[in-house]
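FIELD: query
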Amino acid sequence: MTTPEDTPGLALPPLLDEIRPVLVARDTPVYLVGGAVRDALLGQASHDLDFVVPEKAIQLAFTVADALNVPAYILDRERDTGRVVLPDLQTMIDFARFRAPDLEGDLRDRDFTINAMALPASAISATAIIDPTGGRQDLAAGLIRLTHAASLADDPVRALRALRLAARLHFKLTPDTEMAVAAAAPLLNQVSPERIRDELLKLLLTGAPGTGLAQMAALELLPVILPEIAALAGVTQSSPHHEPVLAHTISVLRWLAQVETAVVYQEETVTPALAQAQSLLAPYAAALAAHLSRPVDGGLHGRTLLRLGALFHDAGKAETRAEEIVETGELRIRFFGHDKAGARLAGRRLRRLRLSNAAIKTVRRIVRGHMRPLYLTQAEKVTRRAVYRFFRDTGEAGLDIGLLSLADHLATHDGPGQGGDWERLLAVVARLFQHYFDAYEETIAPPPLLGGGELITALDLEPGPEVGRLLRLIEEAQAAGEIETREEAVELARTAHQRGP
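FIELD: result
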């Protein structure tokens, strides 16, 4: 890790250079604080910037917004807090009055030492950083440490934030901080669902979501925030699974982050199985990246929904677990209907966390359909009809299911496994993606050969459900490549109508 002593310069965002003349023109000092200072020391330029001033923070926010020709808003008039929004850069700049009588008191009242540093707006060197709690030392050591004993009591959501920062930065919590986080778990019931949701989603989007979930379990945050997932601890599974369900879920999240890195973003990978997936699925990488970056109602992106789908994919196993003795005399553990149960549990929890209906619908589809690619590997051939039915039932979430199935397999077998199962799954996922991205109008959603009115006239039908049924049969046959013309569609419908439902 590069230490502050090695780098007197800082990785400051170019936006700071643009607004610095406005900031230094004030009669009172302006300080960059929090995560932006921390990231600058780590060599990572932040998108969002937080500033504190002794007074008139809202006024400064509007002054900066005018200079940038972008909007500004009052966040909290009583606390003198304002925000500048740069929509084109997906960036926010916040300005706030000191939380205490002076800057040092403001910093000492923050959550963690690595977030309790300040840089004068006029400065560009690490030597100018103000660090009353030893944040630079903890940053160099890779430690998350509370600034003071009452930090989590002041704001319990900081307990979850500690795990999120540890997962994002690959840091460790100090022993005292671990104990404080565990002790603060019951206090999270006092926090609004929206704040819990925001921290949870940020944790899931780190590069180590499995580590974050494991720490939530170890420090007793999981039963408070996600009791459905906590219930999976100790739920055993039969071979080929090598872990109980909660541990498997943690592994799936860990593998999913690697699948995304290799397959979607085509970054260098050292795992042979992932290199194989990367090569085979490379033609769809850009389209998959666009899918994961698409905006979703509620200010989310597609990648968030994929991670949530992985989190809940086996949530139904605790309530569907059953044991049976098979013909060989061995005990076999089954989870019949766990996909449907998991979709129900996911929907219920995500509603409580105030996610949008659109987001919940997609996550439920991912959870309910997560076994479908595995089932397709058992077929002799994945036909066009099978591909059509897969996306008919899953929609756009079928792409997420394809990626999740790869992570699920790798977690189940602790790698690609034996006997060619990994290669068969890769072939199935590649075929699904190929049809979705390269043959959408042929296989997934073919243009109608005739409309409902034409069908009613051609067969002398009464309007009603039968017309819809016949149109669906026509579309499926068209997607399967069995019919191509209007005449063939009419004849198919005539035969199907005579035969009956």
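FIELD: remark
Residues 245-264 form the longest helix (20 residues).
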